[in-house]
């Protein structure tokens, strides 16, 4: 089990956008899909690009470097050239803040 860490104001994390932040020393990308907050490790598994610089579309984030797609809910790759998953972290909303669980 990890620890929950404060990440961002909940109202800064909105549908169809991505927020990059650092949580417990790790780069994290925050998303909101159908009202729920989600968190991924903020680096593409294909190269050194930040997913928080990408575009959100249909439940995926598109990497800004080679346009590979990653599923926001699972971190699984959804299109080439990404073949490996991106780490996903549990995320929740508490008192108007987004928290992310990281060990
Ligand atoms: Fe993300 Fe290549 S670095 S698709």
Automatic annotation (TrEMBL):
Keyword Phosphoprotein: no
Pfam family, one: Rieske
Domain (Rieske) ranges: 4-100
Protein name: Rieske 2Fe-2S domain-containing protein
Sample GO molecular function, one term: metal ion binding
Record organism: Roseomonas indoligenes
Sorted UniProt keywords: 2Fe-2S, Iron, Iron-sulfur, Metal-binding
Cofactor dependency: [2Fe-2S] cluster
Source organism, top-level taxon: Bacteria
Similarity annotation: Belongs to the bacterial ring-hydroxylating dioxygenase ferredoxin component family.
Matching PROSITE patterns: RIESKE (PS51296)
Cross-referenced InterPro entries: Rieske_2Fe-2S, Rieske_2Fe-2S_sf
Keyword Iron belongs to the record: yes
């Amino acid at each position: 089990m990890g620890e929950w860490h404060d990440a961002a104001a909940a109202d800064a994390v909105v549908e169809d956008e991505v927020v990059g932040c650092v949580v417990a020393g790790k780069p994290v990308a925050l998303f909101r899909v159908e009202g729920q907050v989600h968190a991924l490790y903020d680096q593409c598994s294909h190269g050194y690009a930040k997913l928080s610089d990408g575009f959100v579309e249909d439940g995926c984030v598109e990497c800004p470097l080679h346009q590979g797609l990653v599923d926001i809910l699972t971190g699984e790759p959804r299109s080439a050239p990404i073949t490996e998953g991106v780490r996903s972290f549990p995320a929740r909303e508490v008192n108007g803040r987004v928290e992310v669980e990281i060990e």
